[in-house]
Design brief:
The chain has about 210 residues and is an all-alpha fold. It has eight helices and no strands.
């Protein structure tokens, strides 16, 4: 009997996940069947259930892919930056550059579909979605606290609130990109967000009375 390797299993799961993400973006989570995903992945209808027993399991895997991608983005930013604030800037550039990448529209729609599915199925998916968003906020918050320790951001600023605001700016820009497409200047939005962030630097004593 031929032994199935872990590499084969991992590759098959990735094929299924890629097929599911494409179908969810094109037809919506509710409008996509497991049989359609199996066909897109060139599998039998029964075979897919050995890897992902339900659409909810596939959506949980989508959340995992997102977190892994963000972790890699933060790691690359930390490795190339010379300061915590520069690392935040680099994360912003990387995140906003995705609005111009190939397949951006499909990715943004997939994220919106996952958000709506989690909101409608709180018991099945809500916890995973919250965990994903909280993980991203914590990664940003950690960099913000490091920037505060380096006196690059005022230590009176709530780091979690600021991290949530930056994430909200990115998610909101994505929504506008879906609806307005080329009418959205994502570069201009990023410049304003970056300017706002840099103006949170501590005020020197000599500048305290200036406006």
């Amino acid at each position: 009997m031929t032994r199935v390797t872990q590499a084969h299993i991992d590759a098959r799961k990735e094929d299924i996940l890629d097929a599911a993400m494409g179908m969810f973006a094109r037809k919506g989570v509710a409008g996509t069947t497991m049989q359609e995903i199996a066909g897109e992945a060139h599998l039998s209808a029964g075979a897919i259930y050995r890897y992902y027993p339900s659409k909810e399991d596939l959506l949980r895997a989508v959340c995992g892919v997102t977190v892994d991608h963000v972790r890699e983005m933060f790691a690359q930013a930390a490795a190339s930056a010379h300061s915590p604030l520069e690392a935040i800037d680099e994360v912003g550039r990387s995140a906003w550059s995705e609005f111009k990448s190939e397949g951006c529209q499909e990715h943004l729609i997939l994220n919106l579909e996952a958000t709506l599915a989690a909101a409608r199925q709180l018991k099945e998916l809500g916890a995973e979605r919250r965990e994903m968003l909280n993980a991203i906020i914590e990664m940003l918050g950690r960099l913000i606290r490091q920037a505060q320790a380096a006196e690059q951001i005022d230590d009176g600023v709530d780091s979690r609130a600021l991290a949530s605001l930056l994430l909200a700016c990115h998610l909101g820009s994505g929504l506008l990109t879906i609806e307005l497409e080329d009418d959205v200047d994502s570069d201009a939005i990023l410049r304003v967000v970056t300017q706002m962030l840099h103006r949170l630097a501590p005020v020197a004593n000599g500048d305290a009375g200036r406006t």
